[in-house]
């Protein structure tokens, strides 16, 4: 959400994405990826910055058995 015009917001986002790439981010859209880290309640298994989490049991899940 912004009070700025769409072209200004788009240009600012383009600068941020370029800066992330320049810093070595391999992600196409790292800010979209980060926005989902704040939602570890959907779905029942969620990949977070701390690994795979079963949000129903509130515990980490092993990636390999």
SSE inventory with pairings:
Blueprint: H1 6-22, H2 30-37, E1 45-48, E2 51-54, E3 59-60
Shape: elongated
**Taking all residues together, what is the mean pLDDT?**
87
**What portion of the residues fall into strands of 2 or more residues?**
15-25%
- Low-pLDDT runs of 5+ residues are none
Structural class: alpha+beta
Strand order of the largest sheet: 1-2-3
For the largest beta-sheet, the strand count, sense and barrel status come to: 3 strands, antiparallel
Strand element count: 3
Gyration radius over CA: 16 Å
Order of helices and strands: HHEEE
Whole-Å distance between the termini?
43 Å
Helix proportion range = 25-40%
Structure annotation, total helices? 2
Short précis:
Helices cover 38% and strands 15% of the residues.
Structure write-up:
The protein has 65 residues and is an alpha+beta fold. The chain contains 2 helices and 3 strands; from the N terminus they run ααβββ. A 3-stranded antiparallel sheet has the order 1-2-3, with no helix packed on it. It is elongated, with a radius of gyration of 16 Å. The N and C termini lie far apart (43 Å). 0% of the residues are buried.
Keyword list:
alpha+beta, 38% helix, elongated, single chain
